[in-house]
Amino acid sequence: CKLCFDYVCFIYCKNVTFTYCLQVRKKMVEKYVREESMIRGPQFLTTLRSHTVWEHTPVKLYCTVEGYPTPLVKWYKDGVSIDMSSIKYNVQDNVGIHTLEIAKCETDDTAQYTAMAGNIHGQVSTQASVIVKSKSAKAKTYSIHVLSMHFPMLPEIKYTKINITFLETFGSVFGTEGDTVTLAATTTATPNLTNLQPEAQWFRDDHRLSDSKWVKIESARGETKLTLPHLNKDDEGVYTLRMVTKGGDAVHSAFVSCADGPPPVPGAPGAPMDIKIHDANRDYVIVSWKPPNTTTEGPIIGYFVDRCETGTENWVQCNDSPIKICKYPVPGLFEGHSYYFRVRAINSHGISKPSRISDPIAALDPTEFERLHAIKLGGKLDVVIYHDDVEDGKKVPGTPSKLYASETDRTYVVLSWKPAPYQGQAPVWYYIEKVGLSLGAWQRVNTQVPVRSPRYAVFDLSEGKQYLFRVLAANMYGSSEASEPTEPIQTQELHGVPSAPGQVVATRETDTSLLIQWAEPKEPNNLIGYYIDVCVKGSKDWGSANHKPHKNNKFVVQGLTTGETYAFRVQAINELGLSDESQESSPLSVKAALTTPSAPYDIALLACDGESMVLNWKHPVHSGGSPVVEYYIDKHRHGEHTWREINIPPIKERLFKVEHLSAGAVYEFMVYGGSLAGLGAPSAPSKAFHCDAWTIPEPGTVPKTSLKQVSILKMKCA
Q1: What is the 3-state secondary structure (H, E, C) of 171-192?
Q2: Contact, 507 vs 518, CB < 8 A?
Q3: Is Repeat included in the keywords of this UniProt record (predicted)?
């Protein structure tokens, strides 16, 4: 080669041109003189392996992948992305070792599973099949529709049944922002086998938790502990510990509450929460959050959004004036840089503390992968470049197509389109134009900022208005024709906050909690959730029962005082804020709710005449807080599979004669106890009673004796 005196490159140059070799070498210098080599697309060192397992047993798929930057791995089941928040799946990433675990397989888990790894240099995937065999089936061969072969079935596996007992558990916690909270539990396993120890799994509101900056989990033999080092309102929820073994699991749950900490100034609102990043692109992101509850504070008038580049502590306020809705597009980011975001709420008294910071997000073009490809230069050497870096010719770019709105909000629309199939060597950018239906002139949207990716958010639109959009491609040689205009796209129009929720009803739960239920608002208006307020009867000192929006219209208020009487009210939330309060519930005192009685026991046979049996049983140990006043009996004839009711009217006494039985038949019986709370659990089946007439003589009556007979008897004795 005339440029680099490389024999491999010389062979390559014979088939192209010297100028092209110069271009490629220039790209190699630019792209290889970096912190690490660019030739680091994802690569699987260990691929997935197929498994055949029994129903109700675990399976774990694992693979090892390397690449730079670190590849992102996604999991698929039969081509459909797996929901990582599901309690069914446990996905872990441990320094390049990626695992997907199903703790308790069902037959519908039979599928082909795919792990797909990708970074800016490309994507690779590996597949494996999981076949779940039903224990009830005999030797049966399953086949997967994606495979042409059959997998042999494993011999039946008999697992040791391990019973788990909680020795110590954690209760409900009521903390304040900034506290350190620890939930700990101690268990014992029977039998206690070293190589079959239970696995501790922690969940918050059914979402699996793992070690992070905000959550620390420690587990040792028989002990597990979860620590929240800096409690925040995002941490509020029901925490569940599952101790999982081969034969099942043991579960314990408790509620963790987090109240607002002291405000920066008296009367300032609490901090927003649940910061999410949407639609990250090369120069903008969209930030959303949830509003705090306001019981005694003044109403919120807006929010400030702050950003901070990773690796620094320089927080910059993104909006000059407060925004009134809980969503904000942040433009002006630098491509390739990563950022944190946070939000502060404002009312007439002052500004709140900032929310918990978001996860870091990189400002990158989401279509970057589609425009990358590799060129082989011989041997093992590849160079990764963009399509438009190598295509030759001084050409005007083609016309974009398939323009549509991928997201629509109140004041902005996110547009996406398909670039023309061929582009010239010169860099390409795009111009977006808009027109309102009531106006006839097209207006260019991005006159100052060139757009390189086929995706763009158009801001500063009017709420509830209709627009048409079109896009043009351009390079240094000119502009393409405008694309076909979109169909009329209407921005969203919020009609205000939701209407107030309907009737609120409180019912007893335990001696320290009450269950609150309410009717959903008639006008939800993009409802986010609810806040529940609580007040002791006779006072007007309302407090928050929850500090993070609750999604359902049922909520258990914890930490109440036994014997105290409370009232409740509910507010609905959307992006614009909180609704009016609902009407207050009827006051209700806190005491243990009635429960159904436990099962009767010790069913005994007192008599049998060959056609009927007289039964007796013992009273339930636990009445559930209300007297057990009635009983029901079911019978089961040996050889049959159905239990049948004996008595339709309830029995008031613990004694009953069962009639119309078949002589010589064998019967079993079960008894249910009933109270005001309902019908309790059935007793264990009785012993098998044979319907044979008892032949033991029954005690007779004492014969009558006259006074004369008694006198004669006395004389004889004398």
Answers
A1: CCEEEECCCCEEEEEEEEEECC
A2: no
A3: yes
Nearest to 402 by CA among 419, 413, 417: 417
Contacts of residue 132, defined as CB under 8 A and 6 or more positions apart, other chains included, come to 53, 54, 55, 59, 105, 106, 107, 108, 109, 110
Parallel, antiparallel or unpaired: strands 51-54 and 122-133: parallel
Q: What b-and-e string marks burial along 607-631, b requiring 16 or more CB atoms within 10 Å of the CB? A: ebeeeebebebeebeebbbeebebb
Report in angstroms the alpha-carbon separations of 203 from 59, 174, 183, 573: 20, 18, 12, 25
What is the per-residue DSSP string for 108-153? GG-EEEEEEEEETTEEEEEEEEEEEE-TTS-S-----TT-SS-PPP
211 vs 225: CA distance, rounded Å: 12
CA distance 35 to 331: 29
Look at residues 244, 177, 251, 240 and name the one whose alpha carbon lies nearest to residue 214: 177
CA distance 604 to 13: 99
d(CA 62, CA 250): 26
Q: Model-level pTM?
A: 0.61
Split the chain (718 residues) into runs of 10 and give each run's mean pLDDT: 41 43 45 40 86 88 85 87 83 85 88 86 84 63 40 51 85 94 91 77 90 91 92 94 81 93 92 90 87 86 94 92 89 86 94 94 70 49 49 74 88 87 72 85 82 83 90 88 92 85 88 91 90 92 91 91 93 90 92 86 94 94 88 91 87 92 93 90 93 74 48 44
Q: For residue 47, with 0-12 CB atoms within 10 Å meaning exposed, 13-18 middle and 19 or more buried, which class applies?
A: middle
Q: If DSSP codes are grouped into helix, strand and coil, which group holds residue 234? A: helix
Q: What is the largest CA-CA distance in the chain?
A: 154
Cis-peptide into 649, omega within 30 deg: no
Task: Extract the tokens encoding 592.
Answer: 């243990």
CA nearest to 408, candidates 573, 279, 277: 279
